[in-house]
Fold this sequence. Notes:
The complex is a heterodimer.
Chain A: E1 9-10, H1 15-19, E2 30-33, E3 39-41, E4 46-48, E5 54-57, E6 64-71, E7 74-78, E8 82-86
Antiparallel strand pairs in A: 1-4, 2-3, 2-8, 4-5, 5-6, 6-7
Chain B: H1 10-15, E1 43-48, H2 52-62, E2 70-76, H3 85-94, E3 98-104, H4 121-127, E4 136-141, H5 143-155, E5 163-167
Parallel strand pairs in B: 1-2, 1-4, 2-3, 4-5
Amino acid sequence: MDVQTEAAYDGNALAGPLSEVFAVEVTTAVGRCRSCGTSSRVATLRVYGPDPGFVGRCPGCEDVLIRVVRTPDALWLDLSGMSALHVSMQSSDEE
Amino acid sequence: MQGVPDGEVSSYLVGDAQPGDSVEVRGPVGGWFVWKPEDSGAVLLVAGGSGVVPLMAMIRTRDGISQAPFRLIYSVRAPDDRIYDHELQRRSAKDDQLDVSFIYTRAAPDSDPRLAGRIKIDDLVSHGWAAELEPTCYVCGPTGFVETVSNLLIFLGHDPTMIRTERFGPSGP
């Protein structure tokens, strides 16, 4: 069987589907891998897809961090590979 | 428009879309592969084929509002494949902080002393910035191209955190 070793895309490709469910831009957020502890920008994940869904893997250990499956009437989001997702927010003092 | 076998969008545009059809476009989305005008440091842009498109957006954004030194290394198969050819020549001619270099992978013009071939470390040394200048590097193109260039930049001493990449999938035929 032909094993695809090189990810076709990177986490930038998740910007569109994730923008449908998140109020903030998530590709600049940093996810921590539950498996190896590596912290990575979502944009830098190794991404396979788009069918049947996008699978984002950790650049450190290749474990799955995120799965995004878009059906005609729903979006499935599996973040179980991440122990945390760090999203920068504008400081409330700056408003 | 170039069709990519099994390509989700290009096969539709090449095979099915007709003149006069309307398409709906969402975006721009994504905040990572973005240059911000308040960053005044040196910038290296490396494009493979149509990967030049988001880099061109940075060049246009910079025009008139930033003096950040930009260098673009643009890899194409042959001279006819240069997207934005005239605009790039015009912009670099009038702006001494914008350098544009072409790398030809299959057919180089007679005037080019470089033999046609894929991008090599020498090309990044000759036309890029020294790693000591700590430029921000933006690399966009087919997946294999982006992997090659980012590995070469790291080998040349660039900090991996200063290299931002966007892969648009396997390259076309």
